[in-house]
Amino acid sequence: MEIITEGSSPILGRAVRIGAEFALGDHIVISQLFPASAEDGFVKVPLSFRGVRTVEELLHILDLATKESVTCEFSIAAKRVRQFESMKERCRKLSSEFRETAEGNFRAKISLGNVSLEVDAFRSTGDLSLRGTYNKYVGDIRRALNSLLSARSLPS
Q1: pLDDT at position 153
Q2: Cβ(52)–Cβ(62) under 8 Å?
Q3: I need a labelling partner for 68 at 20 to 30 A (CA). Which of 42, 86, 133, 143 fits?
Q4: Taking the alpha carbons of 29, 33, 35, 39 in that order, is the dihedral positive or negative?
């Protein structure tokens, strides 16, 4: 077992290195699938994670992503979204732009707590894609995700 540290404080807490991945607890895995790149004087470090089950765990991952950098671009995919219809109605009410297909799929652009989000959802599969940019000093990501997801647990 290894503790990843920044100076003397733990960043990831107790993390077990498994090859190129880190296991956090019993079900969250973080990996770097692509190499870092430089853009506009900033370094982009793409990380992938899986196994997140609750909004709190997702918020923990976003907090880790903004330890060194103020902003973080994120893209989250969830499968088999529970309560698809209520999610669609929530997005319809909260969005500045909402489009729905004849099959019941939808796309929404939402701004909550100074966090801009784009949502794509597919009714036949129950899949959800959520993209956005988070600035820890400007936006309230906790409020945005709780308002959108409206439940304490994420889709599977």
Answers
A1: 42
A2: no
A3: 143
A4: negative
Domains of the chain and any CATH numbers: 1-51 (no CATH), 55-156 (3.60.90)
Q: Are 65 and 58 in contact (CB under 8 A)?
A: no
Q: E strands along the chain, which residues? A: 2-6, 9-18, 21-24, 28-31, 37-39, 42-44, 48-50, 71-78, 95-100, 106-112, 115-122, 127-135
Straight-line distance from the first to the last Cα atom of the chain, in angstroms, rounded to the nearest whole number = 27
**67-82 pLDDT, tens digit each:** 777 888 888 888 777 7
Q: Read off the pTM.
A: 0.70
Q: Is the dihedral of CA 90, 92, 98, 100 positive or negative?
A: positive
